[in-house]
Amino acid sequence: MRIQPGTGYTFDSSSKGFTLDTSDPFPSSDSQEGCTPFKFKYLGYDSGGDAHSFNICVGTMNNLVPQLEEDSVWVKLDRLVSGVPSPPVGILNFTSGLTYLYLRVGVDTATPPNFPSSDDTTANYPRFISSGTVLSDSDTYGYILVAHGSANSDNVLTMYQDVSGSLWGDRVKINGRTASYYYARI
Known about the structure:
There is one protein chain. This protein has strands at residues 10-14, 17-21, 40-46, 51-56, 67-70, 73-76, 80-81, 84-85, 90-91, 98-106, 127-131, 141-151, 157-161, 167-172, 180-185. The protein is an all-beta fold. The chain has a six-stranded mixed beta sheet, with no helix packed on it. A three-stranded antiparallel beta sheet has the order 3-4-9, with no helix packed on it. The protein has a two-stranded antiparallel ribbon with strand order 1-2. The chain is globular, with a radius of gyration of 21 Å.
């Protein structure tokens, strides 16, 4: 049997047999390959805007797709433009060269309170935020550290992934104490 290369595949043959390779030889730079839920993806440094940009791979928090701020507008991570994935691009905030990327999850103050808020028009909806300081949980928000890092004086960024994977969370508030938040990777 003779195998000839064709559209969509290549092959390799030897005295031990042959193999077909059907992977894309020219993958798109827009490809979501290598994405796992909530994976931090560094896009680069813009010296003109003096900013480090990034995006986050799609995942869920209690079955809700979080948002990321892009050009002062909150956009869900699973945005499609003309049927093609177009994840929002965020900007990292720094203090003394340090940055922290959090998933901020708020409570809906309806009666009874719902956690997390499913109203994507409010600040309590799950959103990724970048901060130059360490943030602490409050009665309104729980913060999950997703990635952290620093940039040196040459704007070379080093980031560490702290959480990857979709999450399920719960909020417990007892007798006037500050609410406690519990999360599990799913």
